[in-house]
Amino acid sequence: MDTNSPDITIVVPLLNEQDNIKPLYEQITKALDSKHDYEVIFIDDGSTDDSFDILTQLHNSDTKVKVVKFRRNFGQTAALSAGFDLAKGKIIVALDADLQNDPADIPKIIDKLNEGYDVVSGWRKVRHDHALTRLLPSLIANWLIARITGVKLHDFGCTLKAYRSDILSEINLYGEMHRFIPALASWSGAKITEIVVNHRPRTAGVAKYGLMRTFKVLLDLITVKFLGSYSTKPIYIFGGLGILSGIGATLSGAVVLYQKYISAQHLAMNRNPLLVLAAMLVTATIQLILMGLLAEMLVRTYHESQSRPTYVIKELLQ
């Protein structure tokens, strides 16, 4: 870590937020200027309005402001990942640019992190969003994520979070995985908590998310669960499914034989749907087990080729 590095990095991804950038910058400055050594990294995720021009002006007038401009829209996960990669602070705070996250909460969330936590997540306990398109899907998604990942947070979708930089260095983000960072960090042994933060209604700009986001969350959740529980032992899930399929094939075949040779009311073999089911399940059993073996080979190749361990060390005394 550079000795001249700031203590805190604020990462702000944005897309077409020209009316919110200056007020957000002023509020961040008011919240942090007299209390913390910090930098602000704005990531322009392919804006088509005047967002980048405004960011350029801020950069020219304040050395604390860094700006990244993407060639096109890559999504919030990619924007956050770029900000995390460029961050120099030991503590990294992410928040949205739409002014719904309140920068006045940043000192509070940092103070909570300094109590010994690795990740502090904001909880928008009182939200100012449309009930049908935002609140209800969010409640369902948060409940599912908490149950499946085992990380008991109320609000995974809140961008306002504080992280220790060493925790983020262990996490690679793809797709739209940013909302799952607490779960990914938890599986690395991070200590996680949440605090209630202020959530404000949007006064300018247009919301970028709708109901379609819920389906993406469900698909990403399957990926996260697999990565968290089976990324180093994929044969367990594929082999387990193969065994279940094999049991189903055995039972179906047994019923077919019973109907053929014992039952008085048997079907002709070529007309019995259970025979077709048994054949399909046998095929599925073979495919799933072979898929598990291939996945095991790929996982071992991945870890060995990158010299990437299957563990995370927090501290080493030697």
What's the topology here?
Elements: E1 8-14, H1 21-32, E2 38-44, H2 51-61, E3 65-69, H3 76-86, E4 91-94, H4 106-113, E5 119-123, H5 131-149, E6 161-164, H6 165-168, H7 181-187, E7 192-196, H8 212-230, H9 234-261, H10 273-305
Parallel strand pairs: 1-2, 1-4, 2-3, 5-7
Antiparallel strand pairs: 4-6, 5-6
Explain how this protein is built.
The chain is an alpha/beta fold and 318 residues long. It folds into two domains: 223 residues, Spore Coat Polysaccharide Biosynthesis Protein SpsA, Chain A (Alpha-Beta Complex); 72 residues. Strand 2, helix 2 and strand 3 form a beta-alpha-beta unit. The model has no long low-confidence stretch (mean pLDDT 85).
Gross CATH architecture of the largest domain: Alpha-Beta Complex
Instruction: Please mark out the parts with pLDDT under 50 across 5 or more consecutive residues, or reply none.
Output: none
Output the CATH homologous superfamily of the largest domain: Spore Coat Polysaccharide Biosynthesis Protein SpsA, Chain A
Number of contiguous helices: 10
> What is the CATH topology descriptor of the largest domain?
Spore Coat Polysaccharide Biosynthesis Protein SpsA, Chain A
Helix content: 40-55%
Structural class: alpha/beta
Structural domain tally: 2
- Give the biggest beta sheet: 7 strands, mixed
Order of helices and strands: EHEHEHEHEHEHHEHHH
* % residues in beta strands: 5-15%
Mean pLDDT over all positions: 85
